[in-house]
Specification:
Elements: E1 4-8, E2 11-18, H1 22-30, H2 32-38, E3 44-46, E4 52-53, E5 60-67, E6 72-83, E7 87-91, E8 98-106, E9 109-117, H3 126-157, H4 161-174, H5 178-182, E10 185-193, E11 197-200, H6 201-209, E12 219-228, E13 231-242, E14 246-259, E15 262-273
Parallel strand pairs: 10-15
Antiparallel strand pairs: 1-2, 2-9, 3-5, 4-5, 5-6, 6-7, 7-8, 8-9, 10-11, 12-13, 13-14, 14-15
Length: 274
């Protein structure tokens, strides 16, 4: 879903669904580090050291935006209503604008509605509408990232040590962090890519993952992780890019055999997908 914003006279209303619960979205609107991350939208940046929040009725929050022209613009707001995690209302003393932020639980996420009233004539513009749209779009990115980090952390806490090692291995491929991958392997690691080739030892393994025939980092989505004895099995789907053939999709099944805390053997089965 993208932001819907309408400007009618001196009122501007913008609505956006975000993939995070109301409590997390409330935190984004009321903590300096989150405000600095999204308040500038796609048209400005926020000086992180300029954000101050005094979360109480009559209290203020202030920040400083830096536009594309490099000029700084200080902003100051006064809290009028604080009803967590549902409603936040604040005014801008300099302009008289009244802003209402409503957070409505919607499925597993939140519908954010921002209603601005008493816009002065110079802010009753498409530029103002686009600015508020950009702020909500950036908010959606920031809170979705926080949600993904939390879910990843919860998943990791439920993993065994060996499963976490495999998780770090997969992350190494996603980020093209070859040093991180090699650090998880024994010196005599064997990699069987069934139906294709076999590498033996870290040097050959490094040569395979640095293969110049491919470009960029692969997208890897793990569907299942199973552990039995010294073996961890992961299945999933992925996407990569060949320099000559272009993008391709595949399903994979990797078996990781451990010796101690390191991966001693990888058996990879890859099936191309149309």
């Amino acid at each position: 879903m993208t932001t819907r914003a309408t400007l009618t006279g001196d009122e501007l209303i913008a609505t956006r669904y975000v993939d995070a619960g109301p409590t997390l979205v409330w935190t984004a609107f009321t903590t300096p580090e989150h405000l600095a991350a999204f308040w500038g939208g796609d048209h400005a940046t926020i000086r992180s050291d300029s954000v101050a929040v005094d979360l109480r009725v009559g209290g203020a929050f202030q920040l400083e935006t830096v536009g594309a022209d490099g000029c700084s613009y200080p902003l100051r707001f006064r809290y009028e209503v604080i009803d967590p995690p549902r409603l936040l209302v604040f005014t801008a003393p300099d302009s008289g604008i009244l802003t209402e932020v409503r957070l409505e639980p919607t499925g597993t996420g939140t519908t954010v509605v921002i209603h601005q009233r008493r816009l002065p004539p110079d802010l009753q513009t498409e530029q103002a509408r686009g600015g508020l749209t950009g702020i909500l779009e950036r908010l959606a990115v920031v809170v979705a990232g926080s949600t993904a980090d939390r879910r990843r952390s919860e998943k990791e806490q439920a993993m065994t040590d060996r499963q976490q090692t495999v998780h770090r291995y997969m992350e190494g491929f996603r980020r093209s962090d070859h040093a991180a991958i090699l650090a998880l392997l024994t010196e005599d690691v064997v990699w069987h890519i069934h139906g294709a080739r076999t590498t033996r030892g870290k040097a050959e393994f490094a040569g395979e993952i640095e293969n110049p025939a491919f470009e960029g980092s692969p997208v890897l989505e793990v569907d299942r992780t199973i552990e039995a004895g010294d073996v961890v099995v992961v299945t999933g789907v992925g996407q990569g890019r060949h320099r000559e053939a272009g993008s391709f999709r595949f399903a994979f099944n990797d078996l990781f055999t451990f010796r101690g805390g390191l991966i001693a053997q990888v058996d990879s089965y890859v099936v191309p997908l149309g």
